[in-house]
Amino acid sequence: MTGWFAAGLLILLGAVFVFYPRHPSLTVFDAAVMARAETAMWRDYYEKRYPALFYELYSVARDQQGFSPFDSLRIGFYAARAAYRFQPTRSRTAADVALPDLIDYYRLLARAAPAPVDVEYAARRELDWWQARREDVSPDLYGLTVAQVAAALYGVDNADLRRSGVLRARAMAYRDAHSRVMTETDWDEIARRLDESYRLLKQAIASKP
Fold it and tell me: From residue 7, how far is each of 3, 4, 52 by CA, in Å?
């Protein structure tokens, strides 16, 4: 009887840990950790290691944004599946296959946003810059779309936030320019650029009135 009680108690405690509502926040992230995590996500995406991509997304949601393990699993799942569905597409029309997952992803993220979020707008803007990269749009231009997504999530729009978006886009352009042979030094450079971008984002959020 004691064994059954102990097992039941462990199951109950596990369920509480996984499902108990947290108080997540998109504003409390560590810029350096986010930069390393995003660099890893990019490698996973281009090397088609989707389980690893899912785990990085899950870890960011849980450890950097404070979501429950259950919600972190859902966030990781929707984001990874959106990337998986987008990767083989070759047109804007075909790329819309990723939109439902992006909407579900942003609907979950919106729970931790400091201001109300237009979820569909954020998802569509995200997909817009994904596609813009494939159309040889300047990173300084689609970086502003990246910034629009951040503005939708954080409820702030200023020079630091726009600069952050452009820096993130330039990191993407660096990867695209070196895509044939990406060395460890190249990935370190991307992580450095992303670190600068996330620090500016943090600064932009902190300056919100």
Answer: 6, 5, 31
Closest CA to 31 of 196, 186, 165: 196
CA distance 128 to 100: 14
The model's confidence at residue 207, banded by pLDDT at 50, 70 and 90, is confident
pLDDT in tens, 72-103: 999 999 999 999 999 999 999 999 999 999 99
Question: Tokens for 51?
Answer: 């389980």
The structure tokens listed for 191 are 């992580």
Residue 204 near residue 158 (C-beta atoms within 8 A) = yes
CA dist 69 and 21 (Å) reads: 10
Domain residue ranges in the chain: 27-206
Residue 164: pLDDT above 90? Answer: yes
The token duo for 40 is 């890893």
How far apart are alpha carbons 86 and 45 in whole angstroms? 11
SS3 of 114-173: CCCCCHHHHHHHHHHHHHHHHCCCCHHHHHHHHHHHHHHHHCCCCHHHHHHHHHHHHHHH
